[in-house]
Design a protein that fits this description.
Keywords: Hydrolase, Membrane, Protease, Transmembrane, Transmembrane helix. By secondary structure, this protein is of the alpha+beta class. It has helices at residues 2-32, 63-67, and strands at 34-39, 57-62. The termini are far apart.
Length: 82
């Protein structure tokens, strides 16, 4: 029984160590590099949601290009007001 408790503490410690490393890395990645977003509605047709279907499209928003001013004609830009 004592071995099981020691083993449980070992796994909890390893989980917490991984958790406290993974969360900041994930948040930084989603904030600075890229994130996934869902596009709904007819405002982006026919490029996104073609044919008026009810399902939404999933897109990758590239934050890195915007930070480096690497926007070119024909790119779709998403703006968020905070």
């Amino acid at each position: 029984m004592a071995q099981a408790q020691g083993l449980g503490k070992k796994y909890i410690k390893a989980f917490l160590k991984g958790f406290f490393v993974a969360v900041p890395v994930t948040v930084t990645f989603l904030d600075r590099v890229a994130c996934v977003a869902r596009v709904e509605g007819a405002s982006m047709q026919p490029s996104l949601n073609p044919g008026g279907r009810q399902a939404s499209d999933v897109v990758l928003l590239n934050h890195w290009s915007i930070r480096n001013y690497d926007v070119q004609r024909g790119d779709i830009v998403s703006l968020v007001c905070l």
